[in-house]
Design goal:
about 290 residues; alpha/beta; Rossmann fold; six-stranded mixed beta sheet; 10 helices
């Protein structure tokens, strides 16, 4: 199934995937005027008393966290500690059992006081990349732009070329996703997220399934993106070295709660035994008694 370039809406399947990557709708002028992609702004995130359970498994426990506008902020911790669950709550792919998340002081959940409304653009890069195999690289990158009829086709093509250039994939518009390496797929997914000039971009385990060389290339790509944009970046990862290289600040989650927030140097030198154990095992190898 290919996405048409004549402005027609994609099917329901495409619609669900697009909403999971770019949010439930394209925030813009209610009058129907084109969305202005020239301006971006960094947003702040405040998480207060979040609880989330799945059956008897209490995944997030009274979790508090604040991410400042414009930060590159990483959330680290072993697998199964609730990192990805927290990310899904931030983009409203799930709802908390209790607590609240505020974006620029506007609540995401509940009723009244503007809950659930948003005037910012966000996109999410999934660990699987979530590219459409039936589309070319260029069609994947331009998906949101064409779905929302943001601008004329020639402008969309210009944006596609520009975003692929940012991630180091110039001239790859006509490649099929089956022709891409794992690292290239990640970079195409980033280019697709950048096409909407998001105010907030989120990465879920970006180095998953990548070897060290491709992980380094991806880290450099994200660093380049950060230098060219003014948005807020949130990275969920178990890859401590990746987080230490990229982040302004890092939070470690353990047993459903945040145990420490600090700069990379503060995390490296932490006296917290949980953080110290994680740092030791992930940077120096297997810990022995």
């Amino acid at each position: 199934m290919a996405l048409k370039h004549d402005g027609r809406q994609p099917g329901k399947f495409f619609g669900r995937i697009i909403r999971s990557i770019f949010g439930p709708s394209a925030p813009g002028d209610p009058s129907g005027l084109p969305i202005d992609l020239r301006e971006t702004r960094a947003v702040g995130i405040r998480i207060k008393g979040i609880n989330k359970s799945f059956g008897d498994n209490h995944v997030l426990k009274d979790l508090d966290l604040e991410i400042l506008p414009g930060e590159t902020f990483s959330i680290i911790g072993p697998s199964g500690t609730g990192k990805s669950v927290l990310l899904k709550l931030i983009v409203r792919l799930d709802t908390p059992d209790s607590g609240q998340i505020y974006i620029d002081d506007a609540p995401l959940f509940g009723e009244g006081n503007g809950a659930g409304t948003r005037d910012y653009r966000y996109s999410m890069v999934f660990q699987s990349s979530a590219l459409f195999n039936s589309l070319t690289v260029g069609e994947n990158v331009g998906l949101w732009l064409r779905e929302n009829r943001v601008c004329p086709e020639q402008k969309i093509r210009d944006i596609i070329r520009d975003k692929l250039s940012v991630v180091g994939l110039e001239g790859s518009e006509n490649l099929r996703t089956s022709e891409l390496s794992g690292g290239m797929k990640k970079r195409v997914a980033i280019a697709r997220s950048l096409a909407m000039n998001p105010d907030l971009i989120l990465y879920d385990e970006p180095t998953a399934e990548l070897d060290p060389v491709n992980s380094d290339e991806l880290a450099n790509t994200i660093m380049k993106v950060r230098e060219k944009t003014r948005n807020t970046t949130v990275i969920v990862t178990h890859d401590l070295n990746f987080a230490l290289f990229l982040s302004d600040r890092i939070a470690m989650i353990h047993d459903g709660s945040i145990v420490q927030v600090g700069t990379p140097s503060e995390i490296r030198s932490s006296a917290n035994p949980i953080v110290r154990s994680f740092v030791y095992t992930t940077t120096k190898g297997i810990k022995t008694e």
